[in-house]
Structure formats: structure tokens, C-alpha cells
Design goal:
This protein is α/β, with parallel strands linked by helices. 57% of the residues lie in helices and 12% in strands. The termini are close together.
Length: 197
């Protein structure tokens, strides 16, 4: 039985960076965000539902128009929740199947909205990646070329960072003062030990 491990954290916390270190250690990682984008283009049932709710313009020529869909949900929390209610269950099922196929001692799913989407209960252990808000804001502004206000808007859509960390089994501090790799190595050893139990 492969242990299932989640990696979560607020926007700009460095979850993907941490996940990539685990990949270097030979642990397979499922990136929920990338998978969701892929499924919105390849899962016919999901495409049909998105088109029903957001209009034919969502799939010009059968390909998802991300800009159009983004403009629909960006300032409309009802529409965003609706989109998430369509996409999350499909992604969660896809991830669960993927995790069952892995043969390593443990496998990882990296996702921002574990607790928000209710998929955390399908995971054996949760790793939280923590970074102070001022660092996260700067990272996202640099990475996505967006304003501070836009980053704060995105942060507001996620549950409070301190609360999120309290819900996790392990925490990796990514505050640019503490080295991340030794923390990941130590956690890797712990998870290998737990997988033998």
C-alpha cells in the first residue's frame, strides 16, 4: 500500500519548489493545478458541463479559451465556486486513481485547495509549506507580473495560512532564511519509515 501525501500552502509559499525536491528523491508527484488544466481540455464530460454553464465561447474550435473563462470567474465568486464545483471532483478522482497506480513507498499530490475542496481526507499525511505573507506577495508579483492588490485578492480566496498550517501533519518553512532541502530530506526519511509501518 503506497502512502498518500499531500503538499499544500498558500499562493507563493513555494509548494511546487518543495514538490520538485521530492521528485529529485524519486517520489512521484501529481500537480493538481496542471492536471485540472489538462482535464478541462481532455475530459469530454467536464468540457460539456463547463460549456453548459459558461457558454459555447469557452471552447472555440474545441479548445479551452482560458482568457475567456478567466474573465468570467475573476471578479465573480459565485461563478468561480461553480467552476471549482465542476473541476475539483474530476481532478480529485483522477488524482486518486493516479496515486493508486504508484509503486514507490509514498506518492505526493501537490494542491493549493486541499482543505477548501474537501480532498484532504483522502490523504494519509499532509505537508504544509509556510512562508510569511510579505514574501509570498513579492514572489507572486515577480512570478506572475501582477499587482499587490491582485495577489491579495487571490490570498483572500484561500483559507487563512496559520489555520491551514495547523491542519497539516508536517511543516516546511520556506522563509528564505532556513534551507529547504535539509527539511525535505528529513521529512523524506520520516515518510519512508512511516510507509514501512
Amino acid at each position: 500500500m503506497v502512502l498518500t501525501v499531500g503538499i499544500t500552502g498558500g499562493i507563493g509559499s513555494g509548494k511546487s519548489t518543495v514538490a520538485k525536491i521530492f521528485e529529485v528523491l524519486g517520489i512521484p508527484v501529481y500537480y493538481a493545478d496542471d492536471a485540472a488544466k489538462e482535464l478541462m481540455n481532455t475530459d469530454e464530460e467536464l468540457k460539456k458541463k463547463i460549456e453548459e454553464h459558461f457558454g459555447k465561447e469557452t471552447y472555440p474550435g474545441g479548445k479551452l479559451d482560458r482568457k475567456y473563462l478567466g474573465s468570467q470567474v475573476f471578479n465573480d465568486s459565485f461563478k468561480l465556486d461553480l467552476l471549482n464545483s465542476l473541476v475539483h471532483p474530476v481532478t480529485i478522482n483522477h488524482a486518486a486513481k493516479w496515486m493508486q497506480q504508484q509503486t514507490t513507498p509514498y506518492s505526493i499530490k501537490e494542491a493549493a485547495l486541499f482543505f477548501e475542496s474537501g480532498s484532504a481526507d483522502k490523504i494519509d499525511y499532509m505537508i504544509g509549506v509556510y512562508a510569511p505573507q510579505h514574501i509570498r506577495i513579492k514572489r507572486v508579483m515577480d512570478r506572475d507580473g501582477v499587482t499587490r492588490e491582485e495577489v491579495l485578492k487571490r490570498i483572500d480566496r484561500q483559507i487563512n495560512e496559520e489555520l491551514k498550517m495547523k491542519l497539516c501533519d508536517f511543516i516546511i518553512i520556506n522563509n528564505e532564511q532556513q534551507l529547504v532541502i535539509p527539511q525535505v530530506m528529513e521529512l523524506h526519511e520520516k515518510l519512508l519509515a512511516l510507509s514501512k509501518k
